[in-house]
Design goal:
This protein is an all-alpha fold. It is about 80% helix and about 0% strand. It has a domain of about 55 residues. It is rod-shaped, with a radius of gyration of 39 Å. It starts with 14 loop residues before the first helix and ends with a helix.
Length: about 90
């Protein structure tokens, strides 16, 4: 009896599935699941950073306004000085 023709089945039918399982395990080892606590912490930190940036922007805007007011004050002082000089000339 010739048994070579009767062994047409793969030697290990689960080999393909075990290879897939190994690949799946490797990918899950690389990236850990995100816990709700770490997600909440990340969102809280992001919110804090946004508020900090808004505060910095507000301070910078206030400083710019202050610089413009000082420039305007000096310009008005010069104009007032010119006006006083004209009055003295008359």
């Amino acid at each position: 009896m010739d048994v070579s023709t009767t062994q047409s089945h793969p030697s290990n039918p689960n080999k393909a599935n075990s290879t897939f399982s190994k690949k799946k395990k490797k990918s899950s080892e690389v990236s850990e699941p995100i816990s709700s606590t770490s997600l909440i912490d990340a969102i809280t930190l992001l919110g804090h950073n946004i508020r900090t940036l808004e505060l910095i922007r507000s301070i910078a805007s206030g400083m710019l306004i202050q610089e413009k007011v000082q420039t305007l004050y000096m310009s008005l002082g010069e104009i007032e000085g010119l006006t006083n000089d004209k009055q003295l000339m008359h």
